[in-house]
Amino acid sequence: MRCLKFSHVRRLLLATVLGVLALTSARAVTLSEGPRVQATETGATIVWSTDVECGTRLSFGTDAKNLTQKAEGPVAATHTITLTNLSPRTTYFFAVGSARKLLGSGSFTTSSAHGGLWKALSAVVIQKPAPAAAAKASPGLSPPPASATWASLNSLPDHFGRHGGDFNATSADDYAAQAWLFLQRAKRDSLPMKLDETDATLRVWDPDNHIFAAYSTAGKTRTFFKPGNPGYWKKQPGRTVKPADLPF
Questions:
Q1: Low-confidence ranges of the chain (pLDDT < 70)
Q2: CB atoms inside a 10 Å sphere around CB 102
């Protein structure tokens, strides 16, 4: 019998090991959060998280049993897919995962007209705010659209996907609206604030509900969530300020 060369054997062993590792990694992927959906009249953004980095794939369509359309993204642990050119007032079904594994599924319905979804959400936030975030918000306040209150719209789906559940937010717009309302209440009720000139960030803390938010010095939200660490606020940099000291 002809003997295999050592280098050839080594390549075979390496290929086998890499194959086993790849299969193990694929089996290890699980859905850790989401999927969450922000839908508009003709589009939608779907966000989900996995316990390890993996490929990003979304299959979708109007027939739950026939998801023929696909969209893909980069390898990541937080996955974001934005769909465009959808039909208004239409229910879409979708499945998320990687090229190797299906992780979750869901559905959403696009709105009937531009602004219709935002107006409905605004009414919910103003008239029946989420108890943790918008509690004690001044009646009659109407949050501006997220494009005017969120510092970087590209980051909004990711923050909503990770922290929207802290406030029972129904969409990214709802989450952004609650963050804006929180700042208005913080200024009115003089909640603890720290202004950090090094990165032009205002940090706000609600000690009763353990809510943290960070804003730009223009008053636009950078993040909004409930830290799990009770000592989180004490570690935040910046000098203590009052509402009258704010630059906006």
A1: 1-28, 112-140
A2: 12
Task: Enumerate the β-bridge partners of residue 231.
Answer: none
The secondary structure of 122-160 as a DSSP string is: HHHHHHS--TTTSTTPPTT--PPPHHHHBS-GGGHHHHH
For residue range 5-34, what is the model confidence (pLDDT) as tens digits?
545 556 655 555 555 455 444 456 888 888
What does residue 123 show for φ and ψ, rounded to 5 degrees?
A: -65, -40
Q: Residue 94 is inside which H or E element, if any?
A: strand 91-97
- Model pTM above 0.70: no
Tell me the two tokens of residue 214.
Answer: 């960070």
**Which H helix or E strand runs over 61?**
strand 44-61
Count of C-beta atoms within a 10 Å radius of residue 42: 15
Tell me the residue type at 136.
K
Using alpha carbons only, give the angle 229, 76, 210 rounded to the nearest 5 degrees: 20
Bridge partner list, 169 = none
Of 141, 228, 203, 207, the residue nearest 178 (C-alpha): 141
Q: Domains, the chain, ranges and CATH? A: 28-105 (2.60.40.10), 116-245 (no CATH)
pLDDT computed for residue 39 by the predictor: 86
d(CA 161, CA 76): 14
> What is the reported pLDDT for 5?
53
Find the helix packing angle between 172-189 and 116-127, rounded to 10°. Answer: 40
Both tokens of 173, joined, read 């717009």
